[in-house]
Amino acid sequence: MTTATRTQADQGTTTRGADEAMREDVVRVLSADGELVSDAPELDDALVVDLYRAMARARACDLRAAALRDEGRIGAYDGSAGEEATTIGSTLALRDDDWIFPTHREPTVALARGGSVEAFFHHLFGNALDGVKGRQMPGGFAARSLRIASASAPVGTQLTHAVGLAWAARIRKDDVVALAHFGERATSSGPFHNAMNFAGVFKTPAVMLCRNSNWPQVSETETITDTFAEKGIAYGVPGVRCDGNDPLAVLRVVRHAVARAARGEGTTLVEALAHPLDGPEGARLDPLVRLRNYLGLRGHWSDAAQAELDESLQQEIDQAVAAASAAPTPPRTTMFDDVFVTLPGHLRDQRDA
Amino acid sequence: MTTATRTQADQGTTTRGADEAMREDVVRVLSADGELVSDAPELDDALVVDLYRAMARARACDLRAAALRDEGRIGAYDGSAGEEATTIGSTLALRDDDWIFPTHREPTVALARGGSVEAFFHHLFGNALDGVKGRQMPGGFAARSLRIASASAPVGTQLTHAVGLAWAARIRKDDVVALAHFGERATSSGPFHNAMNFAGVFKTPAVMLCRNSNWPQVSETETITDTFAEKGIAYGVPGVRCDGNDPLAVLRVVRHAVARAARGEGTTLVEALAHPLDGPEGARLDPLVRLRNYLGLRGHWSDAAQAELDESLQQEIDQAVAAASAAPTPPRTTMFDDVFVTLPGHLRDQRDA
Amino acid sequence: MPQMNMVQAINDALRLEMERDDRVVVLGEDVGKVGGVFRVTAGLFDAFGGERVIDTPLSEGGIIGTAVGMALYGMRPVPEIQFADFIFPAYDQIVSEIAKYRYRSGGQYGCPIVIRTPVGGGIRGGHYHSQSPESQFIHVAGLKVVCPATPEDAKGLLLASIRDEDPVMFFEPKRIYRAARGEVPEGDFTVEIGKARVVREGEDVTVITYGAMLYEALDAAAKAEAEGVDCEVIDLRTLWPLDVDTIVASVEKTGRVVVVHEAPKSCGLGAEIVALINEKAFLRLEAPPRRVTGFDTPFPYTLEMEYLPLSHRILPALVETARF
Amino acid sequence: MPQMNMVQAINDALRLEMERDDRVVVLGEDVGKVGGVFRVTAGLFDAFGGERVIDTPLSEGGIIGTAVGMALYGMRPVPEIQFADFIFPAYDQIVSEIAKYRYRSGGQYGCPIVIRTPVGGGIRGGHYHSQSPESQFIHVAGLKVVCPATPEDAKGLLLASIRDEDPVMFFEPKRIYRAARGEVPEGDFTVEIGKARVVREGEDVTVITYGAMLYEALDAAAKAEAEGVDCEVIDLRTLWPLDVDTIVASVEKTGRVVVVHEAPKSCGLGAEIVALINEKAFLRLEAPPRRVTGFDTPFPYTLEMEYLPLSHRILPALVETARF
Ligand SMILES: Cc1ncc(C[n+]2csc(CCOP(=O)(O)OP(=O)(O)O)c2C)c(N)n1
Ligand SMILES: Cc1ncc(C[n+]2csc(CCOP(=O)(O)OP(=O)(O)O)c2C)c(N)n1
Ligand SMILES: [Mg+2]
Ligand SMILES: [Mg+2]
Description:
The complex is a heterotetramer, with two copies of chain A (about 350 residues) and two copies of chain C (about 325 residues). Chain A is built from eleven helices and five strands. With about 350 residues, chain A is of the alpha/beta class. Chain A has one domain (about 25-350): Thiamin diphosphate (ThDP)-binding fold, Pyr/PP domains (Rossmann fold, 3-Layer(aba) Sandwich), CATH 3.40.50.970. Chain A has a five-stranded parallel beta sheet with strand order 1-2-3-5-4, with helices on both faces. In chain A, helix 3 (about 45-70) crosses helix 10 and helix 5 packs across helix 10. Chain A is globular and about 65 Å long. Chain C is globular and about 60 Å long. In chain C, about 35% of the residues lie in helices and about 20% in strands. Chain C is α/β, with parallel strands linked by helices and about 325 residues long. In chain C, strand 10 (about 205-210), helix 7 and strand 11 form a beta-alpha-beta unit. Chain C contains eleven helices and 14 strands. In chain C, the strands form four sheets. A five-stranded mixed beta sheet of chain C has the order 9-11-10-13-14, with helices on both faces. Chain C has a four-stranded mixed beta sheet with strand order 5-7-6-12, covered by helices on one side. In chain C, strands 3-2-4 form a three-stranded parallel beta sheet, sandwiched between helices. Chain C has two domains: about 5-185, 3-Layer(aba) Sandwich (Rossmann fold), CATH 3.40.50; about 195-320, Rossmann fold (3-Layer(aba) Sandwich), CATH 3.40.50. Chains in contact: A-B, A-C, A-D, B-C, B-D, C-D. The interface of B and D includes residues 140, 186 and 336 of B. One thiamine diphosphate sits at the interface of chains A and C.
């Protein structure tokens, strides 16, 4: 699914147009109506169709998950409906070899990397078939086979993990990049400071992707800087801002950052300005609609294709939810596994008491 | 001793010359030979003599402490011999109402605020007359009556304390400023990030004084930025650099920062570039020699005055060391005091066992 | 007396003390305009304004680190940490600075800070919205640790904590934030820090517990009675310093002990209580002291009700201990 | 076999494992060119270069947080924290991330990191160069905790730790870094994690200890012998998971126990050991188990030798326990 090769990414970002776009205040590729507003880098239409399909799949799963939460059938679930430009756009800017360090909001990135819808819902139900064995809340997923780290609640911790993994890849001379997701408030956390500073000093091939989803409100409580991107200056890490509701802008900016990282030039801080779906501009700027319009204008999408996609997604999701809600709860004894690789005596005692 | 009034500080920094000096890359007032190199703000000669005396006292105490350490008569002691421009220059830029948050390197600031030489050595010996009751290593002093916080080993923690105290003063509408000392490596610590961000958001009347004592080496291990001052950008906190071997430069820059804080404009990050005394340029740039030359050129210092000062300092220190080494060890029972305000049962049991 | 739940009682205490003492400030993530994740600080921002009820950046280290400076200046900061699970970014400030400030300054300075934070499981929160880290603070000398189980104690202990000159970790059992209701005296009153409460008297087995597990212990004790076992149930209320006298007096009477807490077993407060009883009442012990606690695993999600030391796990321990 | 001190033995283990396994990297403050505050990593920078022996910024949270990412990628990071007292800025990464990573990912990922750090007092270091925080890591499920007392164990346990798939806290008793000397096997060998060692056999009292206090306990045991008390001394070596079998076997024999550690008493490992013995060997106990430990105060400076549980404090506990 994630077909980007490093060379493609390079091409996409080393053209004159792309580099100039990076110098814009806020990188934008599509207008609200889906028209190209900036000199776009070469974009493979098939890739954009893939991107659109992956975003639609993520949206459908997120919405169903929210409904299950509201019905009390699963625990607290946040998700990132409306933020697919960032979550999925960035995923398709990576190669499969690259790593993703998500927060609890991005379990849908697994879907864009080949994860099954059924696995997604098994996890939300925390059942015996859940990949993390029912050990975490819906946001806390992990998918090692997809090179997706374990998401967890403590804000910011994954940032240093991403930098550490990228650093390790650099030491091993592997062509691997790590991308970390985080919200704008995480910039106040300790790990942000640590991750950025280590990223600067060790020129790690990492991409720090900040979702500023408060936009266009200013997060007065977190900082008095005008942007979050400029925080990179303290660490010698360049910051780039992009329209977080524009999938092609995110794709372009993240590809650029990935290529830069792969060239050994170090980490980029990306600030994606995302209007929330339920905000005043949300509906108008919905990234899904925007990308569908773009594809429609280019003749790569139709109402029939949409109907077919909706239909097949609903079917897939219905089946997955049915399977996940029917699956058993993890057996009590599994509670004692995986604390250590082998069960120590005191846990055997506690399990068997 | 610290005679600066807020008005003086204001005058010293709102003149055209001073403001322009702040815009210089590295603020410098004195040449290596003690000549004025920049358009100096009004400087009261009596204050400069006080500053010189305080610096000489600090140096003499620091050197004796190092000797005691080398003889094994006291524990590990770092001190800040050669850095008096920063430690004492900044202290005299404050009013007595203002607070100081030192690291373990600046016990001499107490001497510049009226603390006695005897109290200084009682502390170094950790004896029964030590103000902190023999509870900390030589660097870990505290002097509440002098508004000097408790220095301790963990790097950086005092930065958030200084910001918190300044913030409290602001909330209480008191005209009080807090100054924190730290080394350049502390900029990598978590508390630096927290302190700077809170300082930015809450516009606290604090001054963050960074001793870059690695200068002119670049601390490659800590950061890839060219300066430490520029780290303020991430927090909306202006950064200023000054010659850390030039007492009048530090005095000017800190006064400026203090006045700015007192005017409600928030925190300033000051980077003082200090050539260590044992470095290649140390002897030539010794701040004590530089200030003595300045005073000599202006007719306010003489060899006779120096001999008298040396003599009286040696006498004072000899007496203090004699008293401190003769004082008894704190009684064993004091070990259990001050964990809580009143001794709880379990500590009574442990004390009396 | 008015009926209140825990949230209301704590809110009442904060409001009362902020009115009485203008040195008291509340700070934390979303404590101001939003009124806190659990609405414990609701209304305070409107009543006292943004300089005394302060929304901070998302940084526990910053919240607690700046609170230290406020306390040094003579204020009475009452920071909130959204969940006890998120207190660890501030752990260094708490254990290296707050806990040691009075000691290391030779008594010159104090750090009277009350850190409020919800603890405990039972709300489908998984690892990071369920933990009970009290022993990680008790082991560190210099901190008082409080955990109320009733609205009345919540109010009275919080008022006592804010007026205490020592730093206090104030753990609020979130599972019973709204479920525990009861009469709460109006206006000013305090519950003394360091005093346990014998909630139920009995002759056969002493049950020592605190927080949300008090209700599980009481339920188990009622069921044990049906089996002919008469339990005495002690609610510690203050976890440190321990009310050793009340514990020892009860064990002197019963000779049998079961300690119940949510926190993991090993090196938990239960271990300390058992070791203390060995030191103070060894010859009176007629059965091995038992611990019914959370397991030595991270707090699980789906299986949380298997993890918690609920009544059905406490009951057999009571009966077996009585019949040992 | 060559004679080595602890520093040399640890250095030898690091060098050996770095040669054997190129996934092993050492990182920390001043560990590279300087060779560490205690020179434990001396020479490794020259031998393996700056990409495997890495000088980092002054940030424990950054050191440990990035080590997590390295471990996820398949490396074997061995970070050093200059003093255990400075580990708390990394506490959140250790207890919230490293300890839970395998569990929360359903066993998909491990975090095989060995965190090396000097512990303990006796070097005139005051609060911040003397602490023994092991129980703050034991209480948290998911971490193995090791503390060698001899050069041989230091080398063998460190090699075992680096090869372990679980995270290990490796506490090095700095007071005996150079004072403890002994024969150390050349080349590759391991000491199994989780196995205590009976250092001295005896019939009357079991003394359980670890780290630098082993030598104090042995000294006290020798003196107790003169008073007719025959002590068995156990060096735990691995603090978690505990070697319960060795402890219980000894207590079954002696019926009397004294636990000795430097860490503060309350909620320390001693409490857990006493509680465990109550659970496993209650009927064999002939005297109340005693704890001789650091006091529940911050670690003092001038009075540190009064604070530490040295031989002169252990001896009376042995004799009184034997004669109870
Ligand atoms: C260390 C820590 N502190 C507090 C919390 C509670 N919390 C969960 S989400 C959140 C806000 C996060 O905001 P942001 O980083 O912008 O991400 P967003 O939720 O907007 O995606 C907070 C405070 C937490 N999970 N971790
Ligand atoms: C949190 C923490 N980590 C490590 C140490 C050990 N340590 C003591 S001083 C020091 C270097 C400090 O450098 P800098 O901040 O530049 O201050 P300087 O000593 O140069 O004045 C280190 C790493 C410590 N005291 N605290
Ligand atoms: Mg956000
Ligand atoms: Mg320095």
